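Record pair follows.
FIRST:
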Amino acid sequence: MSLAAPDVSLLAVTASALLAASLSGIRFLRVAQREHYVPMSTSRFALRWWGSSPVNRALLLLMAAATVAAALRGLSLVAIVACGVVAAGPLGLSLRGRTSKLRWTRRLGFVAVTWLVLELVIIGLITLAASTAGLASGAVAHAALASAGSGGNFPSAALMAASVIAVPLLIDGALWITSPVERRLALGFVRTAQSKLRQVSPTVVAITGSYGKTSTKGYIAHLLGSTHSVLASPASFNNRAGLARAVNENLAPGTDVFVAEMGTFGPGEIAELCSWIKPDIAVITAIGPVHLERFGSEDRIAQAKAEITTRAATVVLNIDDERLAGIADALAPTGKTILRVSGGARVLSHSGSVDGGSGSGSHSGSVDGGSGSGSHSGSVDGGSGSDGGSGSDGGSGSDGGSGSDGGSGSDGGSGSDGGSGSDGPSAPALPAASSEWRATTTSTDTDTASPDVEVFETSDGNLTVLSVTADGIEIARIDRDLGPPGNIACAVAVAHILGVPHQEIARLLPTLPVAPHRLGALRGSHGALVLDDTYNSNPAGARRALDVLRHAAARDTGLRDQDTGVRAAPHRIVMVTPGMVELGNRQHAENVTLARNACSFVTDFIVVGRTNRRSLLEGARLARVAADGDERAAQHEGGIGGRQNTDHGPDGRELGNGGHDERQGATRNAACQQGNCTVRPMANRDAASTWCREHLRDGDVVLFENDLPDHYP
């Protein structure tokens, strides 16, 4: 008995399915690559994209209806409609990408081949089943059903369409299958890096935290640079693959200190890193809701970050966070050297708003933030800010070096020897903290030991500066916008424990480096001051960025034209942002707060993309409501109220009436304090950058806060 030849309708559906699967596969393989090959990330983004706009939601319903019709009514050709929708959508998710392009690396090829095998096996089995069913039903009946359009191959067409719709899920399956293989492939490179670390035997400073890792790493390397030979892991190479590559390619004999940034997407990953990069000094900069959707709670984030302390003889903790203060207290009886540091928030007023004045104790965003301002020559107009700093393949940016491109999420697991620190060579002896360094600083918190290093705002004449103190003794005063005080405090503590004299620390502090795209200040081609914070995506860093924007607009920050040194009063105060992501169940509320705080003083609020548009527009509306209440109160008092906000569509056209004079200098700024903020939704970053080039001029100031790659809606 031979198999019956598939009818024409089944062949058409099969061809459509293969084409649709190929196009959908390219789209979502790019998503998998951009999400560091973490299983289930592809399906999560597929749901996010199909629900991102009314058009995509309508296409999703059409796709589902066509598949159901093919299944229930036997309408084979209707399944082609479902395949067509998959081939075309979701609208907005391009094949190669604009800012986060598809890169055909070795690992992506491995995942793609695995997915393709899964897809072809499913489609082949469906075709085989259809042919077998056609033979069993008899040639005459089969032909009659086919001529009636009811599909003698039922339910093969519907199953074919379903297999195409399931492309993101099958790619996730391929990620699950290939992850163990990738770990085995990377093991040789990890062992080589481990052997090299033993041979060179540098003092290892390991840094983690929800944010501030990269900036603190740069600060530490800078403060040690004049007295030690230092290697810092490059860029955001903070996972298994990137750190192995950094060691294998860059660690040279004679290196005194290796500064390693360690990131994590889940419990056990930092413990695994510390099993072969054994820290002598461990630093935790901060705990916050970054990656909250992966961890579930900030307590779990703190637990995962605390894995870095297990093997370290010396631990530096920013006790502005009560969780890190608790970890410091818990580690105190273990015999480790514990240095508690503070950015001032623990003992100074810290309300969490961005409305603080310039006096000491009122600055809200200075403790946590992403990085300091300062001079930065990069561009925010279509530059690299969209890539989030780490590269598409987990920091290394290619398949070479470490042998694995995966982000830390795909390389999970604690490692067989992680945790106890009993195996391997003992850590090299470190200088003990001098008795004078131990804390005697007065603190309003009597339940927790005072910080050993503290960086806080204070007044210096008419200026607000940062005071850097040790044991209550001031060792330096620096520009308040040089960087987040908590990050600076962590770096100063590490420099001290490694024997850098206070005088040398004080000499180097004013020239702390600015990490690229982390609140760097530059002058745009249009003459406006640009604050580039496109690599920041956390609430504390956003508060700090808004504070710097406010002071820049008020001419209080010392941000000057790099050529002339002249400061001009801004006419427009602009914020461009897609909002913040990976904040779990806090994402909506945090973005509402961000928009409300920004719209309380900016003149133009540009919302990029659709990922957080609803939340940001709600925050802008709440700012308008608050401003209207202030206006009515001012009118009642005899004051002058400002006009209401004006909403704009994605093309920049006004949606409401409440227009305003384009250039009114200080009068315009005063009006914006009363709610005169224009909200401008834009389709993408390119549209926002174009608007800025066309509308901004000398005297204006714009903050680019975060920049999501375009695999986000």
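SECOND:
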Amino acid sequence: MSKSTISSRFTTTVLKSTEKILRGLLNSMNEPFLVANKKGEVEYINNDAEIFLQSLGVKVDKLTLERLFRLFNFVDNDYFYYWQELWQKKISYFTICQGKCDTYYEVRLSTMQTKPLPLVVLVRLRDVTESMIEHLDNRRVSDFNAQVLETVPDSIIVLDKDGNIILANKEYYKSIEYSSTDVIGTNLFKTDLFLAHHTLHGRFKKLLHDGTPVQIEKISYPSKLAHKNFYLAIKAVPLRSKVGDVIGALSIARDITELEEAYLKLEELNRNLEAVIAERTNALKRTNEELARAIRVKDDFMSDASHELRTPLTIIRGNIELAIRSLKGQMPEELHTIMAEVNRMTAILRDITFLVREPQVEQRLEPAKFSLDETIQGMLMGLKILAQQKNVYLFSELKYGDVIEADESKVEKLIYNLVVNAIKYNRRSGWVKVNTYANNGHAKIVVEDSGIGISEDKLPHIFNRFYRVDRARSRQQGGSGLGLAIAKTVVDLHGGKIEVFSEENKGTRFVITLPRKQGNTKSEQKSLV
């Protein structure tokens, strides 16, 4: 036997022996293993790989790695990428999944050569479903958190135990005007904001030491680019380990610059407004003082004029009365007209004198207890003749039945003016009714008529001095335009209230409310409203 024959037989024996050892080693593994040649053709599979391929319905005959992996979905890249990577690095890792990715396998391709055996590709398949699903879930959560972190309009950073920045969102870069390469790893305590604010420095030190939260409503910091101060509201909380130790912190800062600037502008506007209001108030005060002086001058003039006119009117009246007596009752119509005008002028002067007096309220009133019903009844008796002359029916329902404490003469003047107006401005065969009754401790007086009424647009002005609803008719009736002004003045002096309800051509109703007693006029008046 030649040496070459012996060598060939020895080599064959060694190959078989090595291949047997390799097969035994692969079969002892608890994971699927395949062996392929350089072309990717599968030459051997172990027992686990055989079971795995049978579960997929794959025939082992003439099986190639490319055909095998086309049955799966590649998580990243594709088969050709990893096959080329294998020959560059002698090893390649990738992940595949089956069906709808309910099952994941990690694939390891590696080249192996055990001389005298030829170079082979060893393929290991390992079920990594549980770890892969956990990894994908973590990645989804991480992606979601990153998305939230980037969309939050506040500046967010995460610190480690020493105050180094380990995570920051894009708003933080904007707020401190850093580039993305400047922040991560930077110690927060060495930033401009913390160097400028020692209180902030101390509070964050305490946060990282014992977990005391930080909340700051407003803090300013200078902008390098905008050349102005910006304002932040900061809140920071500790991050703890599972056993409760502080391992870092999460800090959130909100830019409140626009809010603060708006607040400062508002404060400035308020200051300006206060100055304008003060200026307008002073101007109004001066105007009121000037108006008060003008009113006093006017009232003094009216008072003096009425006083000066009263003397010649008295002389005229006396001369007319002498003339009447000398004529023994045969008075010409001219004297009747002159006497009527003198009487009208005297009444006007009396009303003017009443309205322009300026003493204090206590001096103007002479309160005394009297029967309201009896006073009104006596006054109405004196007006019966006037009512008959105007063909107006005058009647009353006086049910107050008690005394009041007031200035009797002024209250009588009040009712007199209202009733006389109701008679004068009534229609023929009309009526005037006067009622009194008690209501919540007050005296109510109602004067109602069936007269011509007052239009709605004129009602707000009827208590003004010298105001006449119908000037021509008032002149004809001898009215001065002061009767209702006097009535309102009397009511106000007593701390009462006067209301008017009227409709044109349907009559008018005055309702007067007077307090039962004087002496606490302000409190009584509040209860009337």
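COMMENT: The chain has 17 helices and 18 strands.
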